[in-house]
Amino acid sequence: YSYSSWLAHQRRASSNRGKQGLSISSQLSHRFVLFGTDFSGGRMVIDLLRRVADARYGSLPPTWAVEPLLKHRLFFPLRHIQRQRLACSDYLFGFKLSASDLMATHCMSQPDRFVTLLYERGYKIIHLQRCDLMRHAIAMLKARQPQRRHVDPQALIAVLKQLDEQRIAEAAIVAQVPHLTITYESELVDPNVHDVTAQRLCRFLALQPQQSVQPPIKLVHQKITDLIANYDEVQATLERSDYAYVLTEASAKLVR
User: Tens digit of pLDDT for each residue in 39-58?
Assistant: First the structure.
Protein backbone atom coordinates (compact mmCIF):
# COMPACT_ATOMS: atom_id res chain seq x y z
CA TYR A 1 0.00 0.00 0.00
CA SER A 2 2.07 2.93 -1.32
CA TYR A 3 2.10 6.46 0.03
CA SER A 4 0.62 7.73 -3.27
CA SER A 5 -2.32 5.30 -2.95
CA TRP A 6 -2.81 6.34 0.68
CA LEU A 7 -2.78 10.02 -0.28
CA ALA A 8 -5.30 9.45 -3.08
CA HIS A 9 -7.54 7.61 -0.62
CA GLN A 10 -7.27 10.52 1.81
CA ARG A 11 -8.33 12.96 -0.91
CA ARG A 12 -11.33 10.84 -1.96
CA ALA A 13 -12.43 10.28 1.65
CA SER A 14 -12.23 13.99 2.42
CA SER A 15 -14.17 14.87 -0.72
CA ASN A 16 -16.94 12.40 0.11
CA ARG A 17 -17.34 13.87 3.59
CA GLY A 18 -17.23 17.45 2.34
CA LYS A 19 -20.98 17.84 1.85
CA GLN A 20 -21.77 16.19 5.19
CA GLY A 21 -19.63 18.69 7.06
CA LEU A 22 -20.59 21.74 5.02
CA SER A 23 -22.75 23.47 7.63
CA ILE A 24 -20.19 22.95 10.39
CA SER A 25 -17.30 23.75 8.07
CA SER A 26 -18.79 27.13 7.24
CA GLN A 27 -18.73 28.02 10.93
CA LEU A 28 -15.08 27.04 11.20
CA SER A 29 -13.61 29.29 8.53
CA HIS A 30 -10.47 29.94 10.56
CA ARG A 31 -8.18 26.89 10.56
CA PHE A 32 -4.48 26.73 11.15
CA VAL A 33 -1.53 24.45 11.79
CA LEU A 34 1.24 25.34 14.24
CA PHE A 35 4.16 23.71 12.46
CA GLY A 36 7.44 23.39 14.32
CA THR A 37 9.51 21.65 16.95
CA ASP A 38 8.67 21.62 20.66
CA PHE A 39 9.75 24.71 22.61
CA SER A 40 9.56 26.96 19.55
CA GLY A 41 6.90 29.24 21.03
CA GLY A 42 3.70 27.34 20.31
CA ARG A 43 2.27 28.01 23.75
CA MET A 44 2.94 31.75 23.40
CA VAL A 45 1.18 31.86 20.03
CA ILE A 46 -1.83 30.07 21.53
CA ASP A 47 -1.93 32.54 24.43
CA LEU A 48 -1.76 35.48 22.01
CA LEU A 49 -4.62 34.13 19.91
CA ARG A 50 -6.69 33.57 23.02
CA ARG A 51 -5.99 37.12 24.20
CA VAL A 52 -6.91 38.85 20.95
CA ALA A 53 -9.96 36.68 20.25
CA ASP A 54 -11.91 37.83 17.19
CA ALA A 55 -14.05 40.87 17.96
CA ARG A 56 -16.92 39.48 15.85
CA TYR A 57 -17.30 36.28 17.90
CA GLY A 58 -16.14 37.17 21.39
CA SER A 59 -13.71 35.42 23.67
CA LEU A 60 -12.63 31.87 23.10
CA PRO A 61 -13.85 29.52 25.85
CA PRO A 62 -11.49 28.13 28.51
CA THR A 63 -11.83 24.73 26.84
CA TRP A 64 -10.28 25.97 23.58
CA ALA A 65 -7.02 24.17 22.96
CA VAL A 66 -4.47 23.51 20.22
CA GLU A 67 -3.27 19.93 20.52
CA PRO A 68 -0.70 17.80 18.67
CA LEU A 69 -3.01 15.50 16.71
CA LEU A 70 -0.44 13.31 14.95
CA LYS A 71 1.96 12.45 17.78
CA HIS A 72 0.91 8.80 17.53
CA ARG A 73 0.71 6.64 14.41
CA LEU A 74 -2.67 6.70 12.68
CA PHE A 75 -3.74 4.80 9.58
CA PHE A 76 -5.80 7.74 8.34
CA PRO A 77 -4.33 10.94 9.82
CA LEU A 78 -6.31 13.30 7.63
CA ARG A 79 -9.56 11.61 8.65
CA HIS A 80 -8.56 12.03 12.31
CA ILE A 81 -7.87 15.73 11.80
CA GLN A 82 -11.19 16.14 10.00
CA ARG A 83 -13.04 14.40 12.82
CA GLN A 84 -11.45 16.69 15.42
CA ARG A 85 -12.30 19.75 13.36
CA LEU A 86 -15.93 18.77 12.95
CA ALA A 87 -16.18 18.14 16.69
CA CYS A 88 -14.93 21.66 17.42
CA SER A 89 -17.72 24.18 18.06
CA ASP A 90 -15.40 27.20 18.22
CA TYR A 91 -14.78 29.57 15.32
CA LEU A 92 -11.04 28.95 15.47
CA PHE A 93 -9.55 25.48 15.07
CA GLY A 94 -5.88 24.59 15.00
CA PHE A 95 -3.49 21.82 15.85
CA LYS A 96 0.23 21.31 16.36
CA LEU A 97 2.33 19.44 13.85
CA SER A 98 6.04 18.70 13.49
CA ALA A 99 8.29 17.30 10.79
CA SER A 100 8.94 14.37 13.14
CA ASP A 101 5.20 13.61 13.31
CA LEU A 102 5.13 13.24 9.54
CA MET A 103 8.50 11.64 8.82
CA ALA A 104 9.27 9.53 11.89
CA THR A 105 5.85 8.71 13.35
CA HIS A 106 3.95 8.32 10.07
CA CYS A 107 6.92 7.36 7.86
CA MET A 108 5.95 9.78 5.10
CA SER A 109 8.58 9.95 2.38
CA GLN A 110 6.98 13.12 0.98
CA PRO A 111 5.69 15.05 4.00
CA ASP A 112 5.38 18.22 1.95
CA ARG A 113 2.53 16.60 0.00
CA PHE A 114 0.58 16.06 3.21
CA VAL A 115 1.07 19.69 4.26
CA THR A 116 0.01 20.78 0.77
CA LEU A 117 -3.12 18.70 1.20
CA LEU A 118 -3.87 20.48 4.48
CA TYR A 119 -3.36 23.82 2.77
CA GLU A 120 -5.77 22.81 0.01
CA ARG A 121 -8.33 21.98 2.71
CA GLY A 122 -8.18 25.54 4.02
CA TYR A 123 -5.53 25.29 6.76
CA LYS A 124 -3.17 28.24 7.19
CA ILE A 125 0.36 27.11 8.03
CA ILE A 126 2.16 28.97 10.83
CA HIS A 127 5.81 27.98 10.90
CA LEU A 128 7.43 28.41 14.31
CA GLN A 129 11.19 28.75 14.30
CA ARG A 130 13.84 29.40 16.90
CA CYS A 131 17.22 30.87 15.91
CA ASP A 132 19.22 30.19 19.07
CA LEU A 133 19.97 26.50 18.66
CA MET A 134 21.89 26.33 21.94
CA ARG A 135 19.05 27.63 24.13
CA HIS A 136 16.53 25.56 22.21
CA ALA A 137 18.48 22.37 22.92
CA ILE A 138 18.92 23.30 26.58
CA ALA A 139 15.17 23.90 26.90
CA MET A 140 14.43 20.44 25.53
CA LEU A 141 16.91 18.78 27.89
CA LYS A 142 15.65 20.68 30.94
CA ALA A 143 12.08 19.62 30.15
CA ARG A 144 13.18 16.04 30.75
CA GLN A 145 14.78 16.90 34.13
CA PRO A 146 13.45 20.31 35.24
CA GLN A 147 15.41 20.49 38.49
CA ARG A 148 18.74 19.42 37.04
CA ARG A 149 21.23 22.19 36.11
CA HIS A 150 24.00 19.81 35.06
CA VAL A 151 23.82 19.05 31.32
CA ASP A 152 25.35 15.97 29.76
CA PRO A 153 27.44 17.38 26.87
CA GLN A 154 26.88 14.29 24.70
CA ALA A 155 23.13 14.44 25.29
CA LEU A 156 23.23 18.12 24.30
CA ILE A 157 25.06 17.29 21.06
CA ALA A 158 22.46 14.61 20.28
CA VAL A 159 19.64 17.12 20.72
CA LEU A 160 21.50 19.72 18.63
CA LYS A 161 21.79 17.18 15.81
CA GLN A 162 18.10 16.35 16.10
CA LEU A 163 17.12 20.03 15.98
CA ASP A 164 19.43 20.66 13.04
CA GLU A 165 17.80 17.86 11.05
CA GLN A 166 14.33 19.05 12.03
CA ARG A 167 15.06 22.58 10.84
CA ILE A 168 16.23 21.38 7.43
CA ALA A 169 13.14 19.19 7.06
CA GLU A 170 10.76 21.93 8.21
CA ALA A 171 12.19 24.46 5.76
CA ALA A 172 11.78 22.03 2.85
CA ILE A 173 8.21 21.16 3.84
CA VAL A 174 6.81 24.67 4.34
CA ALA A 175 8.57 25.97 1.21
CA GLN A 176 5.88 24.23 -0.84
CA VAL A 177 2.94 26.28 0.53
CA PRO A 178 2.20 29.88 1.53
CA HIS A 179 2.88 30.26 5.23
CA LEU A 180 3.60 32.68 8.06
CA THR A 181 6.90 32.37 9.90
CA ILE A 182 6.99 33.40 13.55
CA THR A 183 10.46 33.63 15.11
CA TYR A 184 10.70 32.95 18.83
CA GLU A 185 13.54 35.37 19.64
CA SER A 186 12.25 38.43 17.77
CA GLU A 187 8.47 37.98 17.96
CA LEU A 188 7.59 35.97 21.07
CA VAL A 189 10.16 36.06 23.86
CA ASP A 190 9.80 39.85 24.32
CA PRO A 191 6.29 40.77 25.63
CA ASN A 192 6.81 44.31 24.30
CA VAL A 193 6.34 43.08 20.72
CA HIS A 194 3.38 40.80 21.41
CA ASP A 195 0.83 43.25 20.07
CA VAL A 196 2.66 43.48 16.75
CA THR A 197 2.95 39.69 16.59
CA ALA A 198 -0.74 39.31 17.43
CA GLN A 199 -1.63 41.68 14.59
CA ARG A 200 0.43 39.60 12.16
CA LEU A 201 -1.29 36.42 13.30
CA CYS A 202 -4.74 37.93 12.99
CA ARG A 203 -4.10 39.28 9.49
CA PHE A 204 -2.81 35.90 8.39
CA LEU A 205 -5.79 34.04 9.86
CA ALA A 206 -8.31 36.65 8.65
CA LEU A 207 -9.36 37.47 12.21
CA GLN A 208 -10.50 40.83 13.52
CA PRO A 209 -8.52 41.36 16.74
CA GLN A 210 -9.86 43.07 19.80
CA GLN A 211 -7.92 46.12 20.89
CA SER A 212 -5.11 45.18 23.24
CA VAL A 213 -2.49 47.47 24.71
CA GLN A 214 0.62 45.88 26.16
CA PRO A 215 2.41 48.11 28.68
CA PRO A 216 6.21 48.26 28.31
CA ILE A 217 8.04 45.56 30.25
CA LYS A 218 11.72 45.63 31.14
CA LEU A 219 13.33 42.33 30.23
CA VAL A 220 15.94 40.59 32.33
CA HIS A 221 17.99 38.38 30.03
CA GLN A 222 18.89 35.03 31.57
CA LYS A 223 22.53 34.09 31.10
CA ILE A 224 23.59 30.71 29.75
CA THR A 225 25.51 30.15 32.97
CA ASP A 226 22.22 30.49 34.87
CA LEU A 227 20.86 27.60 32.85
CA ILE A 228 23.88 25.27 32.92
CA ALA A 229 25.96 24.62 36.02
CA ASN A 230 28.73 22.91 34.04
CA TYR A 231 29.02 25.42 31.21
CA ASP A 232 32.83 25.11 30.95
CA GLU A 233 32.56 21.34 30.44
CA VAL A 234 29.83 21.80 27.83
CA GLN A 235 31.84 24.48 26.05
CA ALA A 236 34.97 22.32 25.89
CA THR A 237 33.01 19.39 24.44
CA LEU A 238 31.18 21.50 21.87
CA GLU A 239 34.41 23.09 20.69
CA ARG A 240 35.57 19.63 19.59
CA SER A 241 32.29 18.80 17.84
CA ASP A 242 30.46 19.73 14.63
CA TYR A 243 28.37 22.14 16.72
CA ALA A 244 31.12 24.47 17.87
CA TYR A 245 29.36 27.24 15.93
CA VAL A 246 26.49 27.34 18.44
CA LEU A 247 28.94 28.66 21.01
CA THR A 248 29.38 31.80 18.92
CA GLU A 249 25.62 32.33 18.89
CA ALA A 250 25.35 31.62 22.61
CA SER A 251 28.40 33.71 23.50
CA ALA A 252 26.84 36.73 21.85
CA LYS A 253 24.09 36.50 24.46
CA LEU A 254 26.31 35.45 27.36
CA VAL A 255 26.98 38.20 29.90
CA ARG A 256 29.81 37.21 32.24
Answer: 999 999 999 998 887 878 87
